[in-house]
Amino acid sequence: LTDRLSQSIKKIRGQANLTEDNIKDILRDIRVALLEADVALPVVKSFIDDVKQRALGREVLTSVKPAQMMVKVVQEELERVLGKETSGINFNAQPPVVILMAGLQGAGKTTTSGKLAKYLTERQQKKVMMVSADVYRPAAIEQLQTVGEQVGVSVHPSSVIDNPVTIGKSAVDAAKKGFFDVLIVDTAGRLAVDESMMQEIKALQDSLNPTETLFVVDAMTGQDAANTAKAFADVLDLTGVVLTKVDGDARGGAALSVKTITGKPIKFQGVGEKMDALEPFHPDRIASSILGMGDVLSLVEEAERKIDKKKAEKFAKKVQKGNKFTLEDFQEQLLQMQNMGGMSSMLDKLPGMGQLPDAVKDQASDKHTNRMLAVINSMTVKEKRYPQLIKGSRKRRIANGSGTSIQDVSKLLKQYNQMQKMMRKFKGKGMMKMMQKLGG
Ligand code: GDP
Ligand code: MG
Questions:
Q1: Which of 271, 302, 334, 407 is the most buried (most CB within 10 A)?
Q2: Atom of ligand 1 nearest to the CA of 115
Q3: pTM
Q4: Which residues are recorded as binding GTP (predicted)?
């Protein structure tokens, strides 16, 4: 997937604007990427249309390549669709705040009830009660009981001979009397969407009037998640989604489908079987995993924020005119790189860089950059402008002054010479490219 994308990215490298023509290939690849991530087809279509609209005519910053710009557009659109803020449980209601858990059997409703109870108790100091309205399987009621004991939360008793609405109402009464802040109502699910299950949970929603109705959905069900979401959203007034088993799903497609179809925020994600494996939803992470892009976006953002645009332009002009590239310029480059978190952090953020040979990583290590800067700092202005002056005794003085060795000074001069050669080759083509070359 990432390979495919990087190939079409290569094709638009070096172009200054995003046009219908130069983004065609990358759009096709994004489409394939989304389908591979198991995003539902109608969702893929509308997503691609939106990205296209957003990308066309967009100006490309001097400090980034068009390909990175395109990645950024995609990432922004993903985050826009998935929702930026993580919104927790709504407590803007008369206690007890009732949370109704809806979803298919096996989606993780009971487990999530326990996790959420623990989360709200520990992180938000709420007094939480739970109740099981799953009257079809005695084992389900016991399961919630066990979960309640595990997380130290009271579970209102329920019996298989009662009806779910009666159980729900009696739990609300008990929660009121006991001054509970929250009542979590676990419900029965079926293996597939089924009319009587829908009627039953609808009746529960109508009679309990919950503040939150959370649709619990298994991330690993991929495309099916879209159909299930539609069935539940058609019948119930959902207030949010909990995406479970995110730990077992590297693709992330379900998140995009479910969010697009329900239009409701994904509030939490389940990341394991244990009771503490619940987190606020992170749209940015899912967005990255959908496209397998590593952290390209944050790299682009950092480049925007930290590279001084004017300086970079001035520098590019200077190079274009064929002016000399001095050690002062080299120093400037190193400083900018350091501002961006150092070469190694830049490399870490690019997909596929994990496989770089250690020797290359060493070259790019921040320690190495710092040492080079120390050496340059110990030079006089004249030496920086006319590096050819730096010979034997000057080298020794600089090494002593910077706490490095003569070899370090020689190494720096060698790197500077290489850089100078490269500058001639890449005359005026922008500094990102040079920085990359410098890294390996
Ligand atoms: P319910 O039928 O909707 O109540 O589903 P359960 O809560 O009984 O969960 C079904 C299975 O999924 C159980 O084995 C849970 O341990 C497992 N499960 C639930 N949430 C997660 C999760 O976030 N990650 C993983 N790995 N397993 C989960
Ligand atoms: Mg259950």
A1: 334
A2: 20
A3: 0.67
A4: 103-110, 186-190, 244-247
